[in-house]
Amino acid sequence: MEQNQNPQRIVRPYEERDLAAMREIWNEVVRDGAAFPQIDELADDDEAKKFFDSQTVTVVVESEGRLLGLYILHPNNVGRCGHIANSSYAVASAARGMHLGEALVRDSLVRARDLGFRVLQFNAVVASNASALHLYEKIGFKQLGIIPGGFLNKEGEYEDIIPHIYDLTTL
Fold first, then answer.
1. Which among 44, 65, 66, 76 is most buried, taking Cβ atoms within 10 Å?
2. How much is the pTM?
3. For the purposes of burial, counting CB atoms within 10 Å of the CB of 8, is it exposed (0-12), middle (13-18) or buried (19 or more)?
C-alpha cells in the first residue's frame, strides 16, 4: 500500500526509530484509563517492540517529522473466525482534534481488507468515548448492541461498552 499523505501528515507502517514516541502515546492512552482495556504501560522500548511486532501491522501517523498517533491491527480471533480483524487507535493528547483518528481508522480499513480480512470489529468502544462513537458512525460502522458495565475505568466505575463492526467486503 502506498503511503497516505497530505501536506500535514503521513500514515505509514512503523519503523524501529518510532518506538519511543509510540510507547509514549500508547502509555498516555493506557494511563488515561478511559479507552484501552490495558492497565499496565509498556515498560521500555524492548517491551514496546515485542508488542508492536506481534501485531499483523502497526501503523503510525506523523506530521513534520513528529509522531502523533498509531494503530495496531490483528485478527480478532482464530480459525473459522480468523477473517475478522480488530484494531486499536492512539493519538497523542496534544494532537487530538486534528482528524488524525479518522485518517488512522480509514487507513486500517483498507489495510485490513488488503490483508484478506472481511470484517473489522471493535470489541469494547466505551460508551463515554463520544468522539470515537461519532467517528465510527460517520465512517459507517454498525453498532452491535451494548454490554452493560463492560469497562472498568480508572476511577473504579463500570461503564457500558458498544461493540462495532465494519463489513470490509463493501470497500
1. 76
2. 0.94
3. middle
Q: Which H/E stretch holds residue 105?
A: helix 100-114
Tell me the per-residue pLDDT of 47-67, one tens digit each, with 9 for 90 and over: 999 999 999 999 999 999 999
Helix/strand/coil for 145: coil
CA neighbor of 66 nearest in space, from 26, 104, 22, 4: 22
**Contacts of 110 by beta carbon, 8 Å cutoff, 6+ apart:** 1, 171
Distance separating alpha carbons of residues 149 and 158, to the nearest angstrom: 5
| Domain covering 4-170 assigned CATH 3.30.470.20 in the classification | no
For the four alpha carbons of 83, 40, 48 and 21, in that order, the dihedral sign comes to: positive
**Domain spans, the chain:** 4-170
84-91 vs 119-126, strand pairing mode = parallel
- Determine how β-strand 158-167 pairs with β-strand 142-143: antiparallel
What share of residues in the chain are helix, strand, coil (percent, to 5)? 35, 35, 30
DSSP classification of residue 98: S
Residue 156: left if φ>0, alpha if ψ -120 to 50, beta else—which one? Answer: left
d(C-alpha 108, C-alpha 84), whole Å: 13
